[in-house]
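Batch manifest, entry 17 of 40.
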Amino acid sequence: MVWALPMVALLAGCDGGKDTGKKDEAAKPHAVATYVSAPWEALPAVSDSDLLAGFESWRSACQRLKADPVWGATCAAAATVPGDAVAVRGFLKERLDVFGLRSADNTPNGLITGYYEPVYPGSLTETATAHVPVYGVPDDLIIVNLESIYPELKGKRLRGRLEGRVLKPYDDASTINGQGSTAKPIAWLTNPMDLQFLQIQGSGRIQLAGGRQLRVGYGDQNGYPYRPIGRWLVEQGELKKEDVTMGAISAWAKANPQRIPQLLASNPSYVFFSARPDSNEGPRGSLNVPLTAGYSVAVDRKVIPLGSLLWLSTTKPDGSPIARPVAAQDTGGAITGEVRADLFWGTGDAAGELAGNMKQQGQIWMLWPKGAALPHVPDAPAGT
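Output type: structure tokens
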């Protein structure tokens, strides 16, 4: 799993509860999202090249979905579709229905962000310049899947360490950064901020001497909630909320190296990594298939099942329009609820520039197999 956090998650937060004055009205639960049937004509027009690229991105995961009760039959039929726009359009209209996503207040617009696969300099061994460990998953990290006992807690897990017969919280990021870990490092980076951004993205490449790029991906996490480091800088009066970007955070860290430990300690979450096979493919998402730059998205699987084919309408940070089919192939800690997607932009600095500035409004339609029951969306907590 890539464990993607969008760049907006550098500052992500939620509003505190506000007194509405309606003390006598009990808050009622509501679905975090709804699906509204729509005609095919409601979809924004897309180019043939975008149509084919989005379809191929979705079809690339069909091997993983062949036994899926919803997508299995559609995937089997997709295998024989020729690679031309007329055939693809005909197949989609024959096999799939269109549903627009709506938020809890029935609005079609939601937040579309971006993520990418960074490349950072490093080494397989500790050196005078490469001294920041990229830890693998520690052997003493215990994971408890709560949904096996409490189905209402689907997707919730406890992580900790056994002390005798008691499961205690695992070390937070500040402790690991200061005291190290029992885990074995799989590589070493030159900059602690590179490690933080690598953890935010959840996967990346480490540029080694000699030209090789070591690929690393999300292995596991220490169990603490992610707290955006950008929010800490705003709270400290170091940056304005509207100015928080990865570039601004990096610039602040370069100007204030002595305060980097404080900045990193503000986020207790810590991601452990695993080495991945060398490849020029995109990183593998939660479906364990390579992501396609520009055509794979991370979603909230409570709203959009993994493997789904979506139709996305949004803009790039410069305002130019994006309309294309995309494949729901990944998840992320900050990708939650309502009309929400995180678009994968690819590998390297150019992709990082796009991802880092993307915080756009957009609409999402879900293309769903005809006759299949729509996903059950849980209620949001009362009062949200």
